[in-house]
Amino acid sequence: MAYSKQLLRRLRNEIPIATLIAEHLKLETKADGGYIRFLCPVCKEFRTATNPKTNLARCFRCKKNFNTVDMVMIVNRYNFKEAVQYLKGLDPQKQAERRDALAEMLPNLLKRTP
Predict the structure, then answer these.
(1) Which pTM value belongs to this model?
(2) CA dist., res. 50 & res. 6, Å (int)
(3) Distance in angstroms (rounded) separating the CA atoms of residues 60 and 109
(4) Helices (H) then strands (E): counts for the chain
């Protein structure tokens, strides 16, 4: 299955990497001077940082750069396709569509409740 450049760009840029690391992948994190530091999944050190401007993460010990796809692949031991599918479930656009669909369905569901 091929993924569009637009979808991959959105998954890499619109899902905040700090949120992905802390809330979804559940890596150990520390707040430090406006940056989120996390336990590097490669070298297991805290010499890391996330950059909200570039939406990238870096380990300064093992010199590894991470984007959202890389991070999911490494932490969850997924291949590229599995990582993209995982991130699609977190995609803000898809989540907004699901919320809108649920909001439309909710009044009808409430009417059916005795």
Answers:
(1) 0.77
(2) 23
(3) 52
(4) 5, 5
Token reading at 56: 């990238």
CA 34 to chain centre: 19
Q: Which CATH class is domain 5-112?
A: alpha beta
In which element (H, E) is residue 90 found? Answer: helix 80-90
40 neighbors 46 (Cβ within 8 angstroms): yes
Largest Cα separation within the chain, whole Å, is 61
d(CA 56, CA 81): 20
Tens digits of per-residue pLDDT, 49-91?
999 899 999 999 999 999 999 999 999 999 999 999 999 998 6
Under DSSP, the state recorded for 22 is I
Cβ pair 37, 30 in contact under 8 A: yes
